[in-house]
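Protein entry
_____________
===
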Amino acid sequence: MKVTPYFAVLLLVLAVAAGSLGAYATNRWLDGRDAPAGVHAFVHEELDLTQAQEVSLEAIERDFAAEHNDLELALRSANAGLAQAMTEEHRYGPKVATAIDRVHLRMGDLQKATVRHVFRMRALLTPEQQKEFDREVNKALTSQPKT
């Protein structure tokens, strides 16, 4: 099959769209600032934190923001690699399969970091606050996504 410039551009657009969809899905379902944003607001607004807890939480959130940014960049890079592999192979071949595995690894890294962050926040809380926090986290993880 002859690859015309039009076909090559179309494949590139589709590859970029697929990569963007992967990034969007990660941001929507795994991102520490989406679903847990409700948890963050809950912690700050509903748990009646002490000043010491607030100060500690600010430091934890600053550290996570930096880690999250690095992981997000790694995920975007993996998505770009997927786009490149799709452009090169024009099928579900070994390069595409490997690139997908890299995207999944980066998504997993992001999810693991988010869960570690949730546990770091939890560790700052009193036992009573932890009970309320646990209920809110459970709700955030089990509720249906908003469309």
